[in-house]
Amino acid sequence: MEKLVHLNQLLAHAISFVIFLFLVRGAFNAIIFPPMRERRERIRAEFERIEREKAEVQKIRQEYEAHLKKLDAESRQRIQEAVAEGQRVAAEIREASRKEAQEMITRARQEIAIERDKAQATLRNEVVDLAVEIAGKVIREELTAEKHRKLVDEFLAEVEEVK
Q: Is the pTM here over 0.85, yes or no?
């Protein structure tokens, strides 16, 4: 009989355990599993939201980088345009300076030519005056070879003084 008791007890415990298992499972299904499912859904939804936000941040980052590249290209283009404009202005200034210098040289040459012509005219007039004066002296005096040399020397000395 002892063996039967043990078997009866064992059977009673097994049945109690199975009933307890169904009760616990029912309690878990009714009490614990729904909040766990809700929590699992919230976590899944949160992960999906995080992934969407990551994708959106990545998209914004790409747009920002593209915008930075565009701004960088525009700034380089503006710098190149400014350099080209500076070179153009420098070329214009050089050309204007060259023209002005050429005009100044031309005017200076013209003034030199005018002054040279004036000096030649003055020298010519003085030579004519001297020649007239010498001719007058020659006419007033009789010319000897010695007097002729003296007059020529005086004439040459006066011409040298005029120069």
A: no
pLDDT digits (tens, 9 = 90+) for 13-26: 999 999 988 888 87
Give the N- to C-terminal CA distance of the chain in Å, as an integer: 169
Q: How far apart are CA 56 and CA 74, in angstroms?
A: 27
Q: Answer whether 157's CB lies under 8 Å from 118's CB.
A: no
**Would you state the structure tokens that stand for residue 99, as one six-digit string?**
């023209």
What one-letter code names the amino acid at 28? F
Cβ-contact 130, 158 below 8 angstroms? yes
Question: How is the chain classified by DSSP, letter by letter?
Answer: -HHHHHHHHHHHHHHHHHHHHHHHHHHIIIIIHHHHHHHHHHHHHHHHHHHHHHHHHHHHHHHHHHHHHHHHHHHHHHHHHHHHHHHHHHHHHHHHHHHHHHHHHHHHHHHHHHHHHHHHHHHHHHHHHHHHHHHHHHHHS---HHHHHHHHHHHHHHHHHH-
137-153 residue pLDDT tens: 666 656 566 776 777 77
**Nearest Cα residue to 12 out of 24, 20, 23:** 20
- Given a contact cutoff of 8 angstroms between Cβ atoms, the answer to whether 135 and 149 are in contact is no
